[in-house]
Amino acid sequence: MFTTFMFATGIENSIPTINNGRTRIDQMEKCGHYKHWQTDFDLLDELDIQVLRYGPPLHTSFLGPERYDWSFSDMTFGEIKRRNIIPIVDLCHFGVPDWIGNFQNPDFPELFAAYAEAFARRFPWVQLYTPINEMFICAQFSAAYGWWNEQLRSDQAFVTALKHIVKANVLAMERILKVRPDALFIQSESSEYFHAENPAAIKPAEIMNARRFLSLDLNYGRRVDSEMYEFLMDNGMSREEYHFFLSRSSLRHHCIMGNDYYVTNEHRVRADGLTTSAGDVFGYDEITRQYYDRYRLPVMHTETNLMEGPNGDEAVNWLWKQWANILRVRNTGVPIVGFTWYSLTDQVDWDTALREENNRVTPVGLYDLDRNIRPVGRCYKQLIQDWCNVLPAQSVCLAVPVVPPHEIDEAPVRRHQDRLRKMRRKEAKEDDEPAATSQEVRL
């Protein structure tokens, strides 16, 4: 029932729209997963990988309020269960169905929470979830940079998207816990850092380094910094909305903080606030410790990759570098519970962050799109074999109560779920009780 470290990969299910909603970029379709899904699951066996970041295509599964099409999910998740793969279910990845519109829609949080609960009831053996992937990046690219979905460029649009996305994530966690009281939520969130290029750039860099925490601050019910509070209030968040997030802080006990790190996650900031890529200056180790010091939650490295270049060893060297950072983080006392090379296969149009449809292959997978293993795939398999039995005795180790699909009906699991269900009911009862009056307090 308990695992100490999760070696994972993922199958990309992002679905943003571009061209003012006229074009949807469906990464599962682009990468051939709808056609080759059985082969893709075979590849996991070939690599000895038991944990998969994976989710249903939201735009074809969620047809309307209380209307769902689980046909593809029934096939794929049925096979995942049969193979005893542990899925980390990614329910919303960068886009929503056409009938919802985009992340400016205030109805999105409640609609998505209902969808999350419906999925959990359909597949009650699923335990691990990323309800909404990279909440900060989703809001930034959709409503600040104008690249996806609503394609807006303003602080107010960004705050609106952010509050709707994070509220949807929080409500989804609550609704899933009603079905699966031992559910765990792995927030796959981009870990960023902004470096001032010169003294005049210090202030804009400080603002960006505060802003990068907004999604997780709200999600974990942590009070935001004073400057960010003013930013949120000035751009459309009400005090009632802000206090909604503070009131859900107990959900963090069900969370693992997923940190995504790519070579593009660190930025050089100019005095005028414009940014360029800085490369890996600090690296995953330093930036993850910044996030851990802020939230004090178990950590998982939930995404990384690098394109295979002309030498053929670029991705292999990046894998080694990320793994060295994992070991460094663990050895300095941070409870890190997993590592993910993302994704299983190459992706398409990730060189333009999906904001253009060029149908250009981005060679970042463990396998290419013909399902031939890449050098980084062979190295990842060897890394798993070398380290899977060493880590528990080698450094700081945290046992995560993960239940493989085939163990869902075992008595210890059921007892554990019953205990958690009773605890949830008690917490809910206490939350519903009216506050004591000042006279009652004195008595």
TrEMBL record:
Biological processes annotated in GO: carbohydrate metabolic process
Bias (Basic residues) ranges: 416-426
SUPFAM superfamilies (alphabetical): (Trans)glycosidases
Name by which UniProt lists this protein: Family 1 glycosylhydrolase
Domain of life: Bacteria
One Pfam entry name: Glyco_hydro_1
Single GO MF descriptor: hydrolase activity, hydrolyzing O-glycosyl compounds
Positions of the UniProt region annotated as Disordered: 411-443
